Amino acid sequence: MPAQVEPSKKTVLVTGFGPFGVYKVNTSWEAVKELYKQGLGVDWELVIEEIPVEYCTVKSKVPKLWEKHNPHLVVHVGVSGMASELTLEQKAFNYGYEKSDVKGCLPDANCCVHGADECITAGIKMNIVCADINNSDSKVKAVVSHDAGRYLCDFSYFTSLHINKHRTAFIHVPPLDQPYTVQELAEGLKVAITAMLKQIEEKLQ
User: Which EC number applies (predicted)?
Assistant: First the structure.
């Protein structure tokens, strides 16, 4: 009797950002690394990647990551000093990038993807994800946002939404220990990603 072949696992790609400004250690990358330690369960292949806070790197690297991993879901994670909960971003904008990156550079014409729509809304319903988080046993609470700011977070989000808006998400995390530990942030990310995958899977049925 021939041996049964296990179906290949579907990939979830999660990115965090490198240092910038006052964030010499970027909470987003620390939380993503901790998430990798915790894992997403046996059914999912978790791939993580640190992305420098550079427009040109995001513009070239993010599409290559999609091509390389063919992910079932991409979740970009960034830090926000204004956040006190997991902040689930519902959409991203194509124009208005007037703040220089860590190399002092700006994108051409302050634009993310030339010729693309001014705004893209994610196919994943963040209000449902938010409710799933807030109704879970996680210590971390969540809110929904409709403006990720015009910096690398929004820039990376739009880049991925332009590739596939139904399999892309962005989550802002608060700075470390304000109020959550890195372990708590990772647990919150895990709940959020599980909720997102549930939505994607339900649409495929």
Answer: 3.4.19.3
